[in-house]
Amino acid sequence: MDAAFSAEQEEIRRTLRDLLAQRCGPDDVKAAVRTPAGHDTALWAVLAGQLGLPGLALPEAYGGVGCAVADLAVVGEELGRVLAPSPLFATAVLAAPLVLALGTGEQRAALLPR
């Protein structure tokens, strides 16, 4: 078994590492967690809106990318490396898989694409 990351996963890692190096210095993280939202909303707009990270491991039928969970693990590793203040874990790792697994078709259609 080859446990090495794929070229695509390494590209995800490089893209995030570059972005987070610019946006998640210690002072940035401290300031973000002190906001009413508890995270950097501008960073979240990039992670969710432009990069589509919350839908990375969701099926394409629900607006996701359909990648493997390992791809999401790479993202989590990079966000954790800089202690990035974002709701990615709550959305992509906790909520979305539960809705996908236990939600009705109507709930999946209404919640997952968002």
Second-tier CATH architecture? Orthogonal Bundle
> Could you list the spans in which at least 5 consecutive residues all have pLDDT below 50?
none
Number of strands: 0
Radius of gyration: 15 Å
CATH class: Mainly Alpha
As a percent range, the share of helical residues equals: 55-70%
Average pLDDT confidence is: 92
Instruction: Please give the count of helices.
Output: 6
Order of helices and strands: HHHHHH
Instruction: Give the overall silhouette.
Output: globular
Describe the protein in words:
The protein has 114 residues and is an all-alpha fold. It has a single domain, classed as Orthogonal Bundle (Butyryl-Coa Dehydrogenase, subunit A, domain 1). It has 6 helices and no strands. The chain has helices at 7-23, 26-33, 41-50, 69-81, 88-102, 105-111. The longest helix has 17 residues, at 7-23. The mean pLDDT is 92.
Quick recap:
By secondary structure, the chain is mainly alpha-helical.
Secondary structure: elements and pairs:
Blueprint: H1 7-23, H2 26-33, H3 41-50, H4 69-81, H5 88-102, H6 105-111
Helix pairs in contact: 1-4
Name a few traits of the molecule:
114 residues; mainly alpha; Butyryl-Coa Dehydrogenase, subunit A, domain 1; 6 helices; 61% helix
